User: Which sequence fits this backbone?
């Protein structure tokens, strides 16, 4: 009985570590009267941190991403994207912003937004774990 209890506790602890490794998933909101916000984190190799932000068409958005080892990259999805789970893996479908698409290894982006709605900013490591800081500005 004692062995079963120890095994169960070990599995629970290992399982909770896996949940944490899935990365951040949160909305970016500006403080009252501010036009920018900064977030920071560490993304585990193979995972991504996801941030959403609501903005209007024709606003200018600037995203600046820095990382200690220059190994973080971002992908920005336009409104209308979808996120689904398949075999425990998140799959994002939708249009990306030019210059911040999948595989472009962008460390920043600036431009006029093509549509109103919720944008998704995906931050991942290009090699190994990535410690990063990201500032998003919308005017």
Assistant:
């Amino acid at each position: 009985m004692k062995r079963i209890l120890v095994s169960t506790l070990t599995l629970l602890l290992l399982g909770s570590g896996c949940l944490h490794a899935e990365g951040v998933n949160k909305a970016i909101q500006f403080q009252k009267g501010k036009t920018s916000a900064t977030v920071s984190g560490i993304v585990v190799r193979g995972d991504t941190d996801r941030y959403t932000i609501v903005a209007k068409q024709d606003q200018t958005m600037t995203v600046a991403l820095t990382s200690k080892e220059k190994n973080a990259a971002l992908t920005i999805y336009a409104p209308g994207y979808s996120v689904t789970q398949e075999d425990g893996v998140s799959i994002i479908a939708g249009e990306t912003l030019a210059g911040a698409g999948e595989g472009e290894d962008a460390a920043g982006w600036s431009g006029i937004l093509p549509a109103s709605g919720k944008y998704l900013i995906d931050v991942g490591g290009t090699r190994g774990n990535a410690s990063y800081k990201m500032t998003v500005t919308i005017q």
In short: Residues 66 and 106 are 11 Å apart (CA to CA). The chain is about 15% helix and 45% strand.
